[in-house]
């Protein structure tokens, strides 16, 4: 491996360019043996984009037994001992002629020599500087090379966690390489520039990233793209600093020391104002009842609640009300307590609760099913929350049992052409023409699905948490059943 002062340099270039018709000279220095005593030679491998060695060149001592034989042959039988350091520069001639155009990486390698004079396959040296070159015709250009002082290089276009859209937050990952052997802590700042080179976004990470010597690190940063930002390509300009105030800057090269980094900003897709409007039952501690039902014989008090969160980049400020609509009579009754002026952002859930509900003040008739409606106000008009293609929240009272579930309101009472019975941990569905049986939990998530062409299907409940479920049957006729599962 190379120590902090190690280097690998291509000699004879002019303004980082060189010819490839003649052998180029590369010097490596300040490398140390951190493993077992080693007998052999050092060299430079030429790697293609896949990392495959396409050529390997060794030191001028290779024919005489290798570098360690020349330096340690007299006193140590040609063995480079553990922690031995070779500080002086070792020249190596590398042939780059007749290679295809493209990018190549020059990588330090070592190769062991056996007692019989044969050689092992070359292996990469650990923690080593490398050189990237770009070849075209008979010319070459140095695209990356180590430095004596603090210096960095961007290694690739930024990687994004999602599509970059107007008004959205996206996590970008920048791969940065330390071109020097000394580890350094770095604060990354990202600037986006438009076609006039005006800065349209300027943001910085909160914590530094340590980048080891001659190593790469992927630095994540959240980019909050302004809503007014026009769709298009924006230039990325990076700044690296040693301190939080940004007074000590580190130079940073572009990709391949020539390519500019860009960020493509897309037009924002239409999003609903609220990303979440989850209706739930709450116990006397205001905690969500995961089972989806309340047994008033066991729990005398409960509440009906809704959790709201806005879509990314949007905010709702205004009234929120809750209603229950009788599916038989279409009569609406306001749920008392949920009638609030709220501010809902995309940062966190805003929970709203009804007043305490008990057996004596329930607004729902025994045996009836109700659709739960949450209303907002948009430009002075009451608007129902939720997505049209999602199942509605429904509530049914059966004596002391109050069940909340999601389903299609017009189908929740079932169809007599089917029969459903429970046998232990199984639901047995019978009826001609059944094609698909689906079981949903109280949140509307599909948990079981069975396809059948016979007159009977069996749905296993084993291992499922207790709670309320919706059984949907599809075929020549459709139907839905509410299932209360006690976990046994």
Describe the protein's architecture and organization.
- This protein is mainly β and 488 residues long.
- The chain folds into four domains: 2-144, Sandwich (Immunoglobulin-like), CATH 2.60.40; 152-265, Immunoglobulins (Immunoglobulin-like), CATH 2.60.40.10; 274-404, Immunoglobulins (Immunoglobulin-like); 414-485, Immunoglobulin-like, CATH 2.60.40.
- Helix content is 1%, strand content 51%.
- It has one helix and 39 strands.
- It has one helix at 67-72, and strands spanning 2-10, 17-19, 24-32, 40-47, 53-58, 85-86, 90-94, 102-112, 123-124, 131-136, 139-144, 152-154, 159-160, 169-178, 184-193, 199-204, 209-211, 216-224, 232-241, 249-250, 252-253, 261-265, 274-282, 293-295, 303-310, 316-326, 332-344, 350-353, 369-378, 381-384, 392-398, 401-407, 419-423, 426-430, 434-440, 446-451, 456-460, 467-475, 479-485.
- The strands form eight sheets. Strands 2, 4, 5, 8, 9, 10 and 11 form a seven-stranded antiparallel beta sheet that branches.
- A hairpin with an 8-residue loop joins strand 13 (159-160) and strand 14.
- The chain is elongated.
- The protein starts with a strand and ends with a strand.
- Residues 409-417 have low confidence and may be disordered.
């Amino acid at each position: 491996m190379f120590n902090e002062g190690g280097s690998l340099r291509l000699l004879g270039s002019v303004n980082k360019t060189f010819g490839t018709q003649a052998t180029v000279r590369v010097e490596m220095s300040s490398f140390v043996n951190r493993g077992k005593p080693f007998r052999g030679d050092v060299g430079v491998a030429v790697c293609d984009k896949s990392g495959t060695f396409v050529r390997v060149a060794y030191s001028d001592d290779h024919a005489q037994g290798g570098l360690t034989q020349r330096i340690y042959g007299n006193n140590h039988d040609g063995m480079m001992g553990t922690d031995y350091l070779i500080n002086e520069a070792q020249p190596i001639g590398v042939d780059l002629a007749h290679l295809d155009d493209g990018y190549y990486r020059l990588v330090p390698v070592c190769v062991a020599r056996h007692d019989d004079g044969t050689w092992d396959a070359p292996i990469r040296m650990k923690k080593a500087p490398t050189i990237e070159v770009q070849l075209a015709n008979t010319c070459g250009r140095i695209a990356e090379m180590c430095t004596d002082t603090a210096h960095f290089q961007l290694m690739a276009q930024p990687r994004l966690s999602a599509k970059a859209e107007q008004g959205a937050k996206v996590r970008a990952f920048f791969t940065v390489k330390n071109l020097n052997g000394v580890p350094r802590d770095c604060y990354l700042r990202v600037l986006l520039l438009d076609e006039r080179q005006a800065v349209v976004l300027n943001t910085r990470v909160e914590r530094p990233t340590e980048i080891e010597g001659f190593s790469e690190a992927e630095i994540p940063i959240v980019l909050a793209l302004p809503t007014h930002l026009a769709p298009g390509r924006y230039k990325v300009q990076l700044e690296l600093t040693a301190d939080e105030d940004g007074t000590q800057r580190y130079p940073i090269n572009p990709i391949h020391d020539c390519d500019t980094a860009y960020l493509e900003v897309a037009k924002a897709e239409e999003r609903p104002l609220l990303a979440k409007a989850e209706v739930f039952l709450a116990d006397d501690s205001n905690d969500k009842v995961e089972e989806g039902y309340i047994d008033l014989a066991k729990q005398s008090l409960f509440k009906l609640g809704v959790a709201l969160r806005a879509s990314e980049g949007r905010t709702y400020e205004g009234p929120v009300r809750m209603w229950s609509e009788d599916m038989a009579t279409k009569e609406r009754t306001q749920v008392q307590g949920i009638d609030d002026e709220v501010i809902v952002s995309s940062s966190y859930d805003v929970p709203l609760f009804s007043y305490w509900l008990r057996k004596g003040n329930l607004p729902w008739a025994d045996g009836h099913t109700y659709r739960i409606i949450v209303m907002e106000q948009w430009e002075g008009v009451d608007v129902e929350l939720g997505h049209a293609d999602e199942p509605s929240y429904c509530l049914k009272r059966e004596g002391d049992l109050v069940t909340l579930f999601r389903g299609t309101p017009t189908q929740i009472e079932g169809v007599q052409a089917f029969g459903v019975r429970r046998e232990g941990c199984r639901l047995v569905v019978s009826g001609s023409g059944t094609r698909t049986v689906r079981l949903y939990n109280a949140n509307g998530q599909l948990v079981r699905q069975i396809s059948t062409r016979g007159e009977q299907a069996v749905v296993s409940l084993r291992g499922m948490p207790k709670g309320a479920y919706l059984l949907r049957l599809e075929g020549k006729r459709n139907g839905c059943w509410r299932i209360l599962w006690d976990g046994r």
